[in-house]
Write a structure and sequence with these properties.
The protein is an alpha+beta fold and 223 residues long. Helices cover 22% and strands 32% of the residues. It contains 3 helices and 10 strands, in the order E-E-E-E-H-E-E-E-E-E-H-E-H. The radius of gyration is 27 Å and the shape is elongated.
């Protein structure tokens, strides 16, 4: 006797969370994501259908295979994955689970998805990211990207968060996550105050050197 699992017929697509690396096409005209585990070699768009990563011809997700998109139910669980060293530059995705899906304890394995929101973490320096820049790795035809602030771009290929959303299309929202605020540019009055402080310190050191000179070398050798 074959065991049949209960079927769900939700009134609206379930919501899930996952992490992925943002990628930019080599010609800079398209943006997407690539997974952090089995599907890492296959970049996908905002709206995408899953296929079997092993090249088998069955529809994903198949009960006897681990193919298909994966996500978890809880946002906090997905955020915890960003703590590992290899996932620090990944982004957090909020997705709509579309098509056929299999429910498991922590989340879903499913056939189709729409990425609704991508939350970008801070730059490596800790400042809130304003762009996604070349991360130094990639896939054939795609550059891997990492969060970056304006001060850390250093001429690397990059796109602003808004430009990434536009290139990805399909109504994707890209938002900057938590991070420290970059210091504002100093004005004339702030620079004058800094200069006065440095001059005061320099005057103090010169006074100390003058006193040592008055005492002479013998005074410093007593004791």
């Amino acid at each position: 006797m074959r065991l049949r699992l209960p079927e769900e017929r939700p009134t609206e697509p379930p919501t899930g969370y996952k992490i992925a690396h943002p990628v930019l096409s080599h010609d800079g005209t398209r943006a997407g994501f690539t997974g952090v585990s089995l599907g890492g070699a296959l970049p996908y768009g905002v709206l995408a259908d899953a296929s079997c990563v092993y090249g088998l011809r069955h529809r994903a997700p198949h009960r006897r295979c681990d193919c298909g998109f994966h996500c978890v139910h809880d946002r906090t669980t997905a955020e915890a994955l960003l703590c590992t060293a290899e996932h620090r530059t990944a982004v957090l995705l909020e997705v709509s689970v579309l098509g056929r899906y299999l429910r498991f304890e922590l989340g879903y394995r499913y056939a189709r998805q729409r990425v609704r929101t991508a939350t970008v973490g801070p730059c490596a320096c800790g400042t809130t990211a304003s762009a996604l820049a070349d991360a130094g790795w990639g896939r054939p035809g795609w550059r891997g990207l990492a969060p970056s602030c304006a001060g850390c771009l250093r001429g690397r290929t990059s796109v602003s968060l808004a430009s990434f959303a536009r290139l990805a299309g399909e109504g994707l929202r890209v938002v900057a996550g938590s991070g420290s605020t970059a210091p504002a540019d100093l004005g004339v009055s702030e620079l004058a105050a800094e200069a006065a402080l440095l001059q005061a310190r320099l005057d103090w050191f010169q006074t100390q050197l003058a006193r040592l000179g008055e005492r002479g070398p013998e005074a410093g050798s007593q004791g």
